[in-house]
Design a protein that fits this description.
The chain has 350 residues and is of the alpha/beta class. It has 2 domains: 3-196, Nucleotidyltransferase, domain 5 (2-Layer Sandwich); 248-349, BRCT domain (Rossmann fold), CATH 3.40.50. The chain is built from 14 helices and 15 strands. The strands form 4 sheets. Strands 3-2-1-4-5-6-7 form a 7-stranded mixed beta sheet, sandwiched between helices. Helix 11 links the parallel strand 12 (265-269) and strand 13. Helix 6 packs across helix 7 (146-164). The model is unreliable at 196-245 (pLDDT under 50). It holds the Pfam family BRCT. It is an enzyme of class 6 (ligase). Its EC number is 6.5.1.2. GO terms for molecular function: 3'-5' exonuclease activity; DNA ligase (NAD+) activity; nucleic acid binding.
Length: 350
């Protein structure tokens, strides 16, 4: 995954009124560099409505350079990368309008859009704005700051690649049947879905809504069947929304960004009802934790499921691991004991 995520803020409704630009460079699936420019728009006019959105005032950019002066530095930063933005048509439109307004030729560029990528990666989501998607993925950022928006955009693209099981932007576009957008002196053509006609035909032959769909307040919400993220050969299972409001797919993706269990040692005991044991262990790992097979003084967290048949047949009210954990907790260690439900709620809250 090599690309540069960008975001513009404008002073007015005019496309050539850029007052801030940020660029975030991604190499090998990691954010490696970022830069932000404040820009003095020409003409030097700000709309109160735009100021209310992004908080950039005339006084903040009065002494900054105009876009034309900054372009050599901006062009050097962007290089030949594929540019990615959320609602990329807007950002590429601002870039091209600023170039034209300042008498710079528009270079040949390739670009993609995280809104289009998200629509094809997570079609079940109700909203595809930068803020709703970031909230769903657990990406915390300050909206309408160009740098923070660019970082969020980059993380959405990386989350889509992670969830799709690919390691390059080209692979992601191929898997989603999404063509790359292009731009130049001739204008721009945004990302489009390839083989659209065949996709429509195949969708027309699809069966009606499955029986697993749930009708809520007159609308239909279908559960999602996805492969277990741990092993590609594992059978698929229905994740959907559990009683706790937890979406396994969402947790797996956001875990890579939040890592709420970083450095913590976790033990699972008993029968888990909301996750398979392999999924719980994978989720722990992707949250930064490490699973242990037995409880010790080095254990930070013990997650207790329901009693299994062997424990019940032995006439015990708790597993050996839980009993050891409770003894250590009583001795004053920092070890925490919680149910599977509490474990999931803790991860969501962090």
């Amino acid at each position: 995954m090599d690309f540069t995520a960008i975001d513009f803020e404008t002073a007015t409704r005019r496309s050539d009124s850029a007052c801030q630009l940020a660029a975030v460079r991604v190499r090998g699936g990691e954010i490696v560099d970022s830069v932000s420019w404040l820009i003095r728009p020409r003409p030097f006019v700000f709309s109160p409505a735009n100021i209310q959105i992004h908080g950039i005032t005339p006084g903040m950019v009065r002494d900054e350079s105009e876009f034309g002066e900054l372009w050599p530095d901006i062009q050097s930063t962007l290089g030949d990368d594929c540019l990615i933005a959320h609602n990329a048509s807007f950002d590429l439109g601002v870039l091209m309008a600023c170039l034209e307004s300042h008498d710079h030729p528009v270079p040949e560029m390739q670009y993609s859009c995280t809104r289009a990528i998200a629509r094809r990666t997570w079609p079940q989501q109700p909203r595809f704005g930068l803020k709703p998607l970031s909230d769903w993925l657990g990406i915390r950022f300050r909206h309408h700051d160009a740098l923070e928006d660019s970082v969020a955009c980059a993380k959405i693209a990386l989350a889509a690649a992670e969830d799709s099981g690919v390691t390059s932007l080209e692979e992601l576009e191929s898997k989603l049947s999404l063509s790359r957008g292009t731009a130049g002196e001739w204008g721009k053509k945004g990302p489009t879905t390839r083989r659209a006609s065949s996709r429509r035909k195949s969708s027309a032959r699809r069966p009606s809504t499955p029986a697993s769909a749930v009708a809520i307040a007159g609308s239909t919400v279908a559960t999602a069947t996805i492969p277990s993220p741990s092993l590609s050969s594992a059978p698929t299972r229905t994740c959907g929304i559990s009683d706790s409001g937890v979406d396994l797919q969402r947790l797996m993706i956001r875990a890579d960004f939040i890592r709420p269990l970083e450095g913590r040692k976790v033990v699972f005991t008993g029968l888990l009802t909301k996750l398979q044991r392999e999924e719980a262990e994978l989720l722990t790992s992707r949250c930064g934790g490490k699973c242990q097979s037995s409880v010790s003084r080095k254990t930070d967290l013990v997650v207790v499921g329901e009693l299994d048949s062997r424990t019940i047949q032995a006439g015990r009210t708790m597993s050996t691991k839980e009993a050891t954990a409770r003894q250590l907790a009583a001795e004053g260690t920092a070890l925490k004991i919680m149910t599977e439900q509490e474990f999931l709620e803790m991860i969501i809250a962090m």
